[in-house]
Write a structure and sequence with these properties.
The structure holds two protein chains of two kinds. Chain A has 16 helices and 14 strands. Chain A is of the alpha/beta class. Chain A is globular. In chain B, α3 runs parallel beside α4 (about 115-125). Chain B is globular. The chains are: A alpha/beta, B alpha+beta. The interface of A and B includes residues 201, 285 and 374 of A.
Chain lengths: ~375, ~600
């Protein structure tokens, strides 16, 4: 019997109150004072979902992630409708992880209880910083105070799993202020932390008008010393920018890194779904229409579909798998690509010879992890 | 003895931008060689690169009918000549086929050194030189001064020089009238045994080798059996004709005429430039005096960036050399760059053009090492060897004397820039031989090391004289010099492709500059990169490219991998332009760093 990778579901909510200057994701600012067209969007989402779920009939869902944009702009009832639809159309694991990305604004906090009630069991709060100057520089619309209140509220409501999204290397940040920012997040005793350096992406406001960022030496010092603080708080790094308490790793993200399958629904959502055909595993990448308006009015939400070629496959696999501190086993490669390692043998030998990979697993060495972009060139 | 008395064979001697191509276009237009529709600017410069750079590289010809005021119709055969200093040997080939030459001088700028040199070549060959003052429509035109200069510098009578402007058409008919009057008809005999001089040969994808010939004696017809004198090989003539400038099959070429021959020759070496063609039945006829073989002046290693392209590269060079007998190449292998070819060029422009053609026409990605001249070494055992590659320099313990090539450089420069030019010449180790003041310009003669002249001297000369100075040079001798090899070491490993030979006095300073330049060019990588300059065993300079602390993309959302893939693709594109030396990645630019530092 041919096995298939673990299956997850990603749901994209494409609106934000305001577009942040560093953000290159598919998000669209809502018009001031306007409500988002929630009902229309949900109708489109359910239609999209119905099509996608039909194609994976018989499979089981491992995790759900509602991201954006700002999903917390949706009403709790709306989120509930989506989740109910999913659970009635596909078999879910008993403890399916359901994450929702939330902004720590006052407006969103009021909905936290409702989200929990509707089946969201993990909250990812986009704190970014506890420093009002940095928040302003990042174009965030919440304050440090609101962020702290939001975390407190989520904890008090009984969310057992909370991720804090935090950036470092922010405009004007020093080693001391960067570490202080981090320590505040850790002081909440959070079980999961996404802590990553601000990078300037093309097609963002920061790219056309670059902010004044800290020197490379400061950046590296924040990273190195911050890592120490995180470990002292009982979290360990399991991915390039993800840290967690034992057993609290983000299952949804882990599935990405392990090259699992995921359905993507919503405007501009990306999905990857595998199936077997004439004895070989076919991996299909599907992208949905990017503009919310087009997505909502389309009969078919699909924008593009691409069958991953064997040449693309190895790079795509290692691009994900090597981000994991523990990497993956060689069996995982076979299971999630449907291919043997013979095609990548040469690359593995050279990468190991260069000291960039560990000998037995498909795992980066500490050096290779630090220079992951260099390591990946072996698989291009 | 019979020959058509109405034939006039001529070339145009002109500086690059003194308007030769525009004049040629005018002539073609006036004599109806092409319809207006076919008239494309600068029709004779047919190679893309020639047209883009506004220069002529290869000799071409065109046959035109000129209806003179005397009521006769003359057959004008215009043989185009290259104007750049790198291609002077092509000029003498073209002149050899003519009885006269138009000396075109920019009436605003005055005489230029390369034209002087070409003029002397023409006079030595016994050609009638007819001066023409071009660009007379410009307000800065100063015909009297320029006439005086022509007489002083070149020594020919210019009192009757036609005032013309190819751009406006002014005086163009007078130029042609004067041309048919002053330039003599060719000598020769249609009834004598065939002697045809090969002026140029090139490879045509459909016809094989096409040769441009000047018939000295006899008549050449289609279907004739001919023999190439130097090889003794026989061929049947498939076609003969003229260029108008379109190829026009006439089936016959007579003594005095210039045209093309196609004879099923497959290989350029089957019709060597300067060789003589004759009929099989008169195979014993004397060979015409040919041309002197050209020697490359600049050598550089060319390596494909991807070793998979080596075979394609070899084929491309073979094909290119079909059309360019001056291109020299032989296999070279480098520790740093793998397998490639050491190529010899006539000068830097020639090198650039060859590289550009290889990349453009043959779709190759090439890496060029620093160009060098050829050095003469006398060994302790008395043997003399020549070195065209710094990394092949033998152990200096066995070398009795090292000699560098010296050129005689002739420079013409307006007086106001004289000081700058002299300073530059001294800086380039020049020794002044002569200085002559003329009406508007100064003629300077220097002996200079060729290594200093061939690299960037021409560009520097132009920049210190606001573009007015002109240059012409010739190899004269090898001369003893205190030369050393400057090595560059990357992480303590000598990189053969980065070695340069230079004068001892400059080596230390140059070493320091080179290290600094390399530091700028080599990107930071996973570990420290030490860059050292060394002369023999002595390190004369050192610098370090500090290691990157990390190279990893921080946030990466699992769902959309396209962004991340784009980033990696960009990185890969960057790496493609790098060469791995040991464990260090060196960008291609670095191999030419020696050219990029101001000495």
């Amino acid at each position: 019997m041919h096995t298939l990778p673990t299956l997850s579901l990603y749901i994209h909510i494409p609106w934000c109150v305001r577009k942040c200057p560093y953000c290159d994701f598919n998000s669209h600012a809502t018009q001031a004072g306007d409500d988002i067209p929630e009902a229309t969007y949900i109708a489109a989402l359910l239609q999209d979902l119905a099509t996608e779920l039909k194609a994976v009939a018989g499979r089981r869902l491992h995790s759900i992630f509602i991201g954006g944009g700002t999903p917390s702009l949706m009403s709790a009832e709306g989120i509930g409708d989506i989740l109910t639809f999913v659970k009635t159309h596909i078999d879910c694991e008993s403890d399916t992880e359901v994450t929702l990305e939330a902004n720590p604004g006052t407006f969103e906090q009021a909905k936290f209880a409702g989200f929990l009630e509707q089946g969201v069991n993990r909250l990812s709060i986009g704190v970014q910083s506890f420093d009002d100057d940095c928040l302003q520089a990042l174009g965030r619309i919440h304050s440090a105070r609101q962020a702290k209140l939001a975390i407190g509220k989520a904890q008090a409501l009984g969310f057992e799993r909370i991720n804090l999204d935090l950036m470092h290397g922010l405009p004007g940040q020093t080693l001391a202020s960067g570490l202080a920012d981090l320590q505040q997040a850790l002081d909440f005793g959070t079980d999961h932390l996404s802590w990553y350096q601000l990078t300037i992406e093309p097609n963002t406001e920061f790219h056309s008008r670059p902010p004044n960022l800290p020197d490379e030496e400061v950046l590296v010092d924040i990273q190195d010393q911050g890592q120490g603080l995180i470990e002292a708080a009982g979290l360990s790094q399991y991915e390039i920018s993800a840290y967690s308490k034992p057993a609290n790793q983000a299952r949804h993200n882990l599935n990405y890194w392990r090259f699992g399958d995921y359905i993507g629904v919503g405007a501009g959502a990306h999905g990857k779904v595998s199936y077997w055909q004439s004895g070989s595993m076919v991996i299909e990448r599907r992208v949905k229409l990017r503009q919310p308006k087009a997505y909502m009015s389309a009969i078919n939400a699909l924008s593009s579909s691409h069958i991953v070629t064997p040449e693309e496959l190895q790079l795509e696999f290692f691009m994900n798998a090597l981000r994991l501190q523990a990497g993956v086993s060689t069996d995982d490669y076979l299971a999630n690509t449907g291919q043997t390692l013979s095609n990548v043998k040469g690359a593995l030998v050279s990468a190991r010879k260069a000291g960039l990979m560990m000998p037995d697993r498909l795992q980066a060495s500490p050096l290779g992890w630090r220079f992951l972009n260099d390591l990946l060139t072996y698989f291009e | 003895m019979s020959i058509n008395p109405l034939i006039r064979n001529f070339s145009i001697i002109a500086h690059i931008d003194h308007g030769k191509s525009t004049i040629a276009d005018r002539f073609i237009q006036m004599c109806g060689g092409l319809s207006d529709r076919e008239m494309e600017q600068q029709v004779l410069d047919s190679m893309d690169i020639e047209r883009e750079r506004g220069i002529t590289i290869k000799a071409q010809s065109v046959t035109l009918d000129f209806h003179s005021n005397d009521g006769k119709t003359y057959q004008l055969n215009f043989i185009d000549t290259p104007g750049h200093v790198d291609f002077s040997y092509e000029v003498s080939r073209s002149l050899e086929a003519c009885e006269g030459a138009l000396l075109v001088v920019d009436a605003a700028q005055g005489v230029e050194a390369q034209s002087v040199a070409n003029c002397y070549t023409a006079l030595e060959l016994g050609l009638e030189v007819v001066p023409v003052l071009n660009k007379m429509d410009l307000p800065q035109a100063d015909p009297d001064k320029v006439k005086q200069e022509i007489e002083e510098v070149i020594g020919i009578d210019s009192s009757d020089a036609v005032a013309a402007s190819a751009k406006s058409g002014m005086g163009m008919n007078d130029v042609l009238e004067q041309l048919v009057e002053l330039i003599p008809a060719p000598e020769g005999d249609e009834d004598a045994p065939l002697q045809a001089l090969i002026i140029d040969s090139w490879f045509d994808n459909y016809l094989g080798i096409v040769s441009l010939v000047r018939i000295k004696n006899g008549v050449l017809r289609k279907k004739d059996r001919i023999v190439v004198k130097s090889t003794g090989l026989q061929y049947g003539v498939d076609g003969v004709g003229i260029f108008t400038p379109k190829r026009n099959q006439t089936d016959i070429l007579r003594a005095g005429e210039v045209g093309y021959v196609v004879a099923g020759i497959k290989d350029i070496h089957g019709a060597p430039v300067g060789d003589t063609l004759t009929h099989v039945k008169t195979a014993d006829v004397e060979s015409l005096p040919g041309f002197k073989k050209v020697q490359p002046q600049v050598y550089a290693g060319l390596f494909p960036t991807s070793s998979d392209d080596y075979e394609d590269f070899r084929e491309a060079l073979a094909k290119l050399s079909l059309n360019d007998a001056s291109l020299f190449y032989e296999p070279e292998s480098s520790d740093a760059l793998g397998f490639g070819f050491r190529c010899g060029f006539l000068g830097m422009l020639h090198m650039e053009i060859i590289q550009e053609r290889l990349e453009r026409e043959y779709n190759l990605d090439l890496l060029t090492t620093a160009p060098t001249v050829i050095y003469e070494l006398e060994l302790n055992n008395g043997n003399v060897v020549y070195v065209d590659n710094p990394s092949k320099l033998p152990d200096m313990g066995g070398v009795a004397e090292m000699r560098e090539p010296i050129v005689e450089a002739n420079i013409l420069v307006p007086q106001e820039h004289l000081g700058n030019v002299i300073t530059l010449c001294v800086q380039k180790r020049g020794v002044q031989k002569n200085m002559q003041f003329t009406a508007t310009q100064v003629a300077l003669t220097y002996d200079m090391p060729m290594s200093e002249v061939v690299l960037d001297f021409f560009d520097r000369l132009k920049s210190v004289s606001r573009g007015y100075a002109s240059l012409e040079y010739n190899f004269v001798r090898f001369e003893e010099a205190k030369l050393v090899r400057l090595d560059i070491l990357i992480n303590a490993e000598r990189v053969d492709a980065l070695a340069v030979i230079m004068h001892r006095d400059n080596a230390q300073g140059r070493g320091r500059l080179l290290c600094e330049k390399m530091k700028e060019l080599i990107p930071r990588q996973m570990f420290d990169v030490a860059i050292q300059a060394a002369i023999g065993g002595n390190i004369v300079s050192r610098t370090t490219v500090k290691a990157l602390r990390k190279n990893v993309t921080a946030k990466c959302y699992g769902g959309d991998i396209s962004r991340k893939k784009k980033l990696l693709a960009k990185q890969k594109e960057g790496k493609k332009r790098m060469k791995q030396v040991g464990s260090v990645e060196i960008p291609q630019d670095a191999f030419l760093a020696v050219l990029k530092i101001d000495s």
